[in-house]
Design a protein that fits this description.
Four Helix Bundle (Hemerythrin (Met), subunit A), elongated, Arc Repressor Mutant, subunit A, 261 residues, two-stranded antiparallel sheet, 12 helices, 62% helix, mainly alpha
């Protein structure tokens, strides 16, 4: 049976600034801090999302895993609890830890999205994210145009200024991009939509990073964001919806180009 230790290198490549950036290398046995079990969860999650473990596969037992990596058994158990909470695995006494069917995975969880883009994401999955955005964000922009307040517009305007200042090639620029999309959802005053802000923001962030892995963005998407802002500020629901749909459609085309390289 393939084990996690056999399948993966141990150097961590979690996103900068994440709690998952701790090294998981065979040294003196470590404790069970958040950084350690986060790094283990990152490696396991990335392997599952990459298809190195398929639904129904059994992961290494905690004894074998902890001995192979010289980490504590409790750190491994805590990492598995993270994966369980996200629907990737389930653990049963004597049966071990089994990878669940993809339909059970919380694919909109920001961590799961990060794991999906740590490797080469599946084009169908990427297309699905953009289809979700195309359904949610234009409608959200229309509501935002009707319900936005001055504070919402200021957040959007400040985010656009930061995007221009830092560019989307930087983490600061991408953080501003997330703030812009978050502000649009917040401006809807719809709690059910606002709950999606973390997932939408994560999808925006990881697809933008993915598009820049081999070269710069094929075009500057900030003017597309400006059109969304202008329509929302003008109180134009139809214009806001159309501008957001165009933004999402063009982002998908850019991402397809990146995946074809």
């Amino acid at each position: 049976m393939k084990t996690f230790a056999d399948a993966l290198p141990l150097a961590t490549d979690a996103p900068t600034g994440s709690d998952e950036t701790a090294e998981v290398t065979p040294r003196a046995r470590r404790g069970t801090g958040r950084r350690l079990h986060g790094a283990i969860a990152h490696k396991l999650g990335t392997a599952i999302l990459a298809g190195e473990y398929l639904p129904g596969d059994i992961l290494s037992g905690e004894v074998a895993f902890s001995e192979a990596l010289d980490v504590s058994r409790s750190a491994y158990r805590e990492a598995v609890q993270v994966l369980t909470a996200k629907g990737l695995v389930e653990s049963r006494p004597k049966a071990g830890t089994r990878v669940l069917p993809r339909s059970r995975w919380n694919l909109l969880d920001p961590d799961v999205l990060a794991w999906a883009f740590a490797g080469e994401p599946d084009i169908a999955f990427v297309r699905g994210l953009f289809e979700l955005r195309a359904i949610v964000e234009p409608a959200a922009a229309a509501l935002a145009a009707e319900r936005r307040e001055r504070t919402d517009l200021k957040i959007m305007k400040d985010a656009l200024a930061a995007m221009r200042r830092h560019t989307l090639a930087t983490e600061a620029g991408r953080a501003a991009d997330r703030e812009f999309h978050d502000a649009v959802l917040t401006a809807t005053r719809n709690d059910a939509l606002i709950v999606l802000s973390a997932s939408i923001g994560a999808a925006v962030n990881w697809t933008t990073q993915f598009k820049q892995r081999a070269r710069a963005l094929p075009r500057n998407p900030i003017p597309d964001h400006m059109l969304v802002y202008d329509a929302i500020a003008a109180g134009d629901p139809t214009g806001a919806s159309e501008a957001m749909r165009t933004l999402v459609d063009l982002a998908l085309e850019d991402t397809k180009l990146a995946m074809e390289r």
